Amino acid sequence: MFDNLSTKLDKAFKTLKGQGSITEINVAATIKEIRRALVDADVNYKVAKEVTDKIKDEAMGRDVLTTVSPGQLMTKIVYDELTQLMGGTKEDVVLKGDPAVILLSGLQGSGKTTFAGKLATFIKKQNRTVLLVACDIYRPAAIDQLKVLGEQVGVEVYSEPENKNPVEISQNAIAYAKKNNKKVVIIDTAGRLAVDEQMMREIELVKRSINPSETLFVVDAMTGQDAVNTAKTFNDRLNFDGVVLTKLDGDARGGAALSIRAVVEKPIKFISTGEKMEALDMFYPDRMAQRILG
Ligand code: GDP
């Protein structure tokens, strides 16, 4: 097994013990070790550099070397810094309006439709009535997929298979929700294999016309650096409110969470950890800091 970061830090500081206070020179190797751990966990290099510069500043002022366990103290500085950088505390989705509307965006395959089913389950558990809306006008299979999920979780699915106008479908769905006393509307939009202009324009129009109380961007944590670039492209166009990181049940160490948060400055709100409808968690920055550092 590889050493986790705290074990590595303990080792690094053992050799320094007794040398007095911490200096630029004697901490350099440790900072490099932390940076490597972050990059290994998929944190984008630029973000990793900014983070370790902050950690260095924080450590410099402390009497790290004369403490009983400088490695542990340093590890705590790193955890605290990462937790703060990811927002400190969890952030909930905002459900405002009657009905409250949640718009989902993301690339095809990111886990958007699966998340729609999970979110519906999550909200239903809070005793609110939910309407799922299939707004993928390109893939009839996507409508069927949502219908199957809706049936599975006991939530009605609204669709207009013949209509090719997502703005109209969304507006009609909201009117339907009002009439049928559904308090939360979740709109699943079309996803593509790569970011394309038409898709961006389309979802931008949907957002403008329905003014959702929450726009979420869904992204596959396994895609590493690409996740950050995609997040940036979507945020530039949609100015979304929060991020959903999926497929965290795999090997991804979670560095994408830190990179996305640092680059787009939007909170991660949920993490998805499997294909089952229950595999959804709120995002806790401190737990992710732990995961990133191993
Ligand atoms: P969409 O194209 O963005 O709507 O993506 P889908 O919801 O269809 O998901 C694509 C694939 O990823 C499907 O096979 C899902 O079962 C799978 N998937 C979605 N979320 C997760 C997750 O959190 N973990 C794992 N392991 N698979 C997931």
Keywords summarizing the entry:
single chain, 294 residues, alpha/beta, eight-stranded mixed beta sheet, 50% helix, elongated, binds guanosine-5'-diphosphate
Account of the protein in words:
- This protein is α/β, with parallel strands linked by helices and 294 residues long.
- The chain has helices at 5-14, 24-40, 45-60, 70-85, 112-124, 140-153, 166-179, 197-210, 225-238, 255-264, 285-293; strands at 100-106, 130-135, 156-158, 184-189, 214-220, 242-246, 268-272, 280-282.
- The chain has an 8-stranded mixed sheet with strand order 3-2-4-1-5-6-7-8, sandwiched between helices.
- Helix 3 crosses helix 4 (70-85), helix 5 (112-124) packs parallel to helix 6 (140-153) and helix 9 (225-238) runs parallel beside helix 10 (255-264).
- The mean pLDDT is 89.
- Bound molecules: guanosine-5'-diphosphate.
- Guanosine-5'-diphosphate binds at residues 106, 108-114, 191, 246-247, 249-250, 272-275, 279.
Summarize the structure in short.
By secondary structure, this protein is an alpha/beta fold. The chain has helices spanning 5-14, 24-40, 45-60, 70-85, 112-124, 140-153, 166-179, 197-210, 225-238, 255-264, 285-293, and strands spanning 100-106, 130-135, 156-158, 184-189, 214-220, 242-246, 268-272, 280-282. It has an 8-stranded mixed beta sheet with strand order 3-2-4-1-5-6-7-8, with helices on both faces.
How do the helices and strands line up, and which of them pair or pack?
Layout: H1 5-14, H2 24-40, H3 45-60, H4 70-85, E1 100-106, H5 112-124, E2 130-135, H6 140-153, E3 156-158, H7 166-179, E4 184-189, H8 197-210, E5 214-220, H9 225-238, E6 242-246, H10 255-264, E7 268-272, E8 280-282, H11 285-293
Bound molecules: guanosine-5'-diphosphate (GDP).
Guanosine-5'-diphosphate (GDP) binds at residues 106, 108-114, 191, 246-247, 249-250, 272-275, 279.
